[in-house]
Fold this sequence. Notes:
Layout: E1 2-7, H1 17-34, E2 38-41, H2 55-64, E3 70-77, H3 83-96, E4 101-106, H4 113-119, H5 123-128, H6 130-142, E5 165-170, H7 173-181, E6 185-189, H8 197-207, E7 219-227, H9 231-249, H10 259-264, H11 269-279, E8 282-285, H12 287-301, E9 305-309, H13 315-330
Parallel strand pairs: 1-2, 1-9, 2-3, 3-4, 4-5, 5-6, 6-7, 7-8, 7-9
Helix pairs in contact: 1-13, 3-6, 7-8, 12-13
Amino acid sequence: MKLSILDQSSISSGQTAGEALQASLRLAQIGDELGYTRYWSAEHHDMQGLACSAPEVMIPYIAANTKRIRVGSGAVLLPYYKPYKVAEVFNMLATLFPGRIDIGIGRAPGGSAEATNALSDNFLQQVYAMPEKVEELLHFLYDEFPKGHELSKVTASPMPPVPSKPWLLGTGKKSAMLAAQHGLAYAFGHFMSEADGEAIIQSYLDSFQSKKQGEKPQLLLTVSAVCAETTKRAEEIALSSLIGRLQQAKGEGHTVPSIDEARKYTLSNQEKEQLENMKRNIIVGNPQEVGAALKQLQVRYNADEMMIVTICHSPEDKRRSYKLIAEEVFS
Length: 331
């Protein structure tokens, strides 16, 4: 089983944004050492509890300070940007770090309505134009515009020796079908989807249209997981993230609380129910439990790769979680 990392660069209580970004670098370095396949940095806007709003800035920093692991975006929110500029950025990254750059593409706003308006005057129209924007981006990445096309004389320089690997990210059938139509690798956000994931992924596999000889569908499943030496300890660590989400929903805080802070939080009956619902979308346990759960999901969804997102208060606990999972899965 291949393992990868999705990092949201969450900020913990008592931590600065700069410290959170440094913790992200250390996590990527640990992933590099442990044999994780890729590290993706997420794009979010107007979220005070998350430190990364620009993966295109984080990617070269991570790539320059690691050796082997692939580095990419999870995702570039394409409706905000012109495909040509995105292609220029990732062609330059792929030139600097040949064979190590992924370009994950998404359509979500990634933040508040106010942030969306600040970033784009016509976001919804650009979402509707997503199929055309994806096609244009791919033409720029591979320098393969048809002859006579109005953009065929434009090159997204520099053209790298090995192009960045494009992935389409999503949680619904539209994204799955768009990935299949363009012969793209697909990353399904299991941890944030309430849809019928198996049906969505099956539609991708069934509809995949190979654009190059021998090309096959490639599926990555993103899951939320927290692992510790014991189940009890893993549940304590995971509680911080869950309570933090409840607090953020009420506007009471933006950072991930410590375990002690989370324990002291008084839950209403409604919040107790919300907490139980949230637990259903996260794998929590000791290495054997987490490893078994990941394997079960991999088989259930026919996934080539499992990408793990872990939110907790302590950077040390987060790194330990990824280490324990790798040792269990790779042993």
